[in-house]
Design goal:
Blueprint: H1 15-25, E1 37-41, H2 47-65, E2 69-75, H3 82-93, H4 107-121, E3 123-130, H5 132-139, H6 142-148, E4 157-165, H7 176-182, E5 185-189, H8 194-208, H9 218-228, H10 233-249, H11 257-277, H12 281-297, E6 301-302, H13 303-316, H14 324-336, E7 340-346, E8 352-358, H15 362-370, H16 386-393
Parallel strand pairs: 1-4, 1-5, 2-3, 3-4
Antiparallel strand pairs: 6-8, 7-8
The structure holds adenosine-5'-triphosphate and magnesium ion.
Magnesium ion binds next to helix 2.
């Protein structure tokens, strides 16, 4: 019940948002056409959870009242091309296998088939485009334009778009016509504050744990940490779940604040390691070069030294080294990800350079980078003593060596 996939029946502190979303979509129950809706807010602010709940509630009411209402939800993180989106929407509406849209058609043909399937379905069709910003980033806004004006071509059906985004500025990239269509109604989800996160966690903890298992202060601490991380309920839940796992591993009877602190450190490391793994190749080599230099010196390193080190490593890996200017951009990128800090230092006679400090745990990050086949040739050898130690500790082994 602490997992992300679990949808709780109650969403504390989202009553107002639930009502707002429901009010925008409710006209569908009377056979009227609702406005398009854009929902935006930072990560873990309950956008997906709220829409899921409203969807279930409206569907139940529509079925009871015999109103023609259908919902289609698409996560644009997975379905992010125009083709796959239209195909997906069409196939959700298809009743028979023979109606299904295969891969390999022209986009026009898919569009026409999808329109026919909508027409056959009839009534109001609400299309929820979760993480819509990813769709636009990957394949532009043409497909949104198609969907936003499709009602002019439909007779017995009406399409309503509900876009969900955690990129607050993504509409800036949209064509003005698409933007105004999508923005007919707009709802902002504010980040949760610590007391709200406490209520969310307490609700879940009541069902997830036996009584007396959660020490006083544990939920408060999880909530406080998560508030610092931009009020993300997902993060708060992950902390509590991980703290519980830490307690189990310790064979403890209760979850303590210490477990929460350990969980927070673990989670931060995991996030950093994941972030490093997803960097582009040259950026990884650069980060590795920075970490190597930093490990040697244990103090800030200057960009000149970092660049030399990077060039040496890149050459050993058979990669043509990038120009210093591109590397300088990557330094800024690593900084904006919070992995390093770069400060400008003057070097006499008006010369200026950047000094780089490392903000990640070296002992975790270097092995994570070395795991990448790209970097494996320059990685350090794995701990050689390991086999010996295991033999040593093996209780089955008796007698002298
Ligand atoms: N008010 C709430 N009460 C209970 N659980 C909540 C509440 N808000 C969010 N959650 C839980 O927190 C997690 C994150 O919520 P959700 O997925 O809805 O966030 P989101 O705003 O869609 O985030 P993202 O932008 O990353 O997609 C989910 O597990 C959800 O069940
Ligand atoms: Mg979401």
């Amino acid at each position: 019940m602490l997992r992300d996939s679990y949808v709780p029946a109650r969403l504390p502190h989202r009553d107002a948002e639930i009502r707002q979303v429901a009010e925008v979509l409710a006209p569908a129950l009377r056979g009227d056409v609702p406005s398009n809706l854009l929902i935006y807010g930072k990560i873990g602010t309950g956008k997906t959870a709220v829409v899921t709940q409203v969807r279930q509630d409206l569907q139940r009411r529509a079925d009871a009242a015999d109103a023609k209402l259908a919902f289609i939800s698409v996560n644009c993180g997975n379905v992010d091309t125009a083709y796959s989106l239209l195909q997906n929407v069409g196939n959700t509406l298809a009743r028979a296998d023979t109606d299904r849209i295969p891969t390999g058609w022209s986009l026009d043909r898919v569009q026409a088939a999808m329109r026919r399937l909508m027409e056959t379905k009839g009534g109001t069709i609400v299309l929820v485009l979760d993480e819509i910003d990813r769709l636009v980033a990957r394949s532009g806004d043409n497909v949104l334009y198609t969907l936003a004006q499709i009602n002019t071509e439909l007779d017995g059906a009406r399409l309503v778009l509900v876009g969900i985004s955690n990129d607050l500025k993504f509409t800036n990239h949209l064509d003005a016509r698409v933007r105004s269509r999508l923005n007919e109604e707009k709802i902002l989800f504010e980040p949760y504050r610590a007391p709200q996160l406490q209520d969310i966690l307490a609700d879940r903890a009541r069902v997830a744990f036996r009584e007396g298992v959660v020490d006083p202060g544990v939920i408060e601490l999880c909530a406080a940490y998560a508030q610092l991380e931009s009020g993300d309920a997902r993060r708060a839940l992950a902390l509590l779940r991980l703290a519980a796992e830490m307690a189990e591993r310790d064979r403890a009877k209760r979850i303590t604040r210490d477990h929460v602190v350990k969980a927070k450190n673990r989670l931060e490391k995991d996030i950093i390691v994941d972030c490093c793994r997803s960097l582009p190749p040259h950026c990884k080599v650069l980060l590795y070069a920075i970490l190597q230099a930093y490990e040697r010196r244990r103090t800030g390193v200057l960009t000149g030294e970092v660049y030399d080190n990077y060039k040496r490593l890149a050459e050993r890996l058979g990669l043509p080294p990038l120009h210093a200017r591109s590397i300088s951009n990557y330094v800024s990128e690593l900084e904006s990800l919070g992995l390093i800090r770069a400060t400008i230092v003057s070097r006499g006679r008006g010369g200026r350079t950047r000094e780089i400090q490392v903000d990640v745990p070296i002992s975790e990050t270097m092995p994570a980078l070395e795991e990448d086949p790209l970097l494996a040739p320059i990685g350090r050898p794995k701990n050689r003593g390991q086999t010996l130690l295991t033999n040593f500790d093996n209780p089955a082994r008796t007698g002298p060596f």
